[in-house]
Amino acid sequence: MALSALASIPYIHIPALGPVQPFGVLVAIGVLLGAHLLRKYAEWHGIHDDHIRGVTMWVIVSGFLGAHIFDVVAYQWDDLVADPVLLFKIWAGISSYGGFLGGAMGFALYVWWKRLPAFLYADTVMVGLLPAFTIGRIGCSIVGDHMGKASDFFLAQTWPAAINKNGDPISWVTRHNLGIYELLYLLPVCAIALGLAFRKSKRMPAGFVAVLIGAMYAPVRFFLDYLRPTTTDPRYFSLTFAQWSSILAFSASVYVAIKVLRSGKPAPIGEAAVARPDAAKVFKEALEPEKKAPTSAKK
Fold first, then answer.
1. pTM for the whole thing?
2. φ/ψ of residue 262, rounded to 5
3. Which of these, 21, 168, 255, 296, is most buried using a 10 Å CB contact count?
């Protein structure tokens, strides 16, 4: 046990500089980097600037609302029943999977409204979202937003078990820091996804990068949730809200990936992705198996 404690990741406290919090700084860096990569990818594919701003705004706003609503419903249900106004206190708790679901809804509505090629825009959004989310996980790791069960695992982190009235730790415990685990996994996922997205030869069909990210992220998030305390993450039929969401995300991602690989094509480079009246039809056809042309009847 002593050896495990020595091998654990030490507690690191980064103080705030006045009103500037380290978590907020890292989130801002992530957003700026994500926005830069999103714009670079969008301009490479000729996406109009109005649509870059439009889809980004819809995803951010709906994602933020979804993050709070799903957090309240899935993790604070008893508090919501006692105080229904909690649903409107958008600062009182957020869920990453709730943000994904809310953002996906906003994305789908915007693409449908503007009649845009859904797969190209899905790749574009994920190229910005993935690095922003990854850097945000650094902030989560520092502030301990996702602390798991006590453990002597060598990557567990020494964390305050109790603090005095001045905020100074007075006792310690070694716990899983799920933010660190997820960060370590997301770094190679970023490298793979961005490498595929920006390579100029042997390009993947439009939409593949987006569903690949979903298929790679979901299983790891599913298993990491087993390390969360039951007191902070309630179970529904033995699984957390995030685990059920992971099953849904993985299944949908694999299904769409197979369809895209079979019949999809790389998005054109340099051509404007303008509104198309047949966008809904194109999206539907991409998910359907190829139909063979009917053979002429024998005479």
1. 0.84
2. -75, -40
3. 21
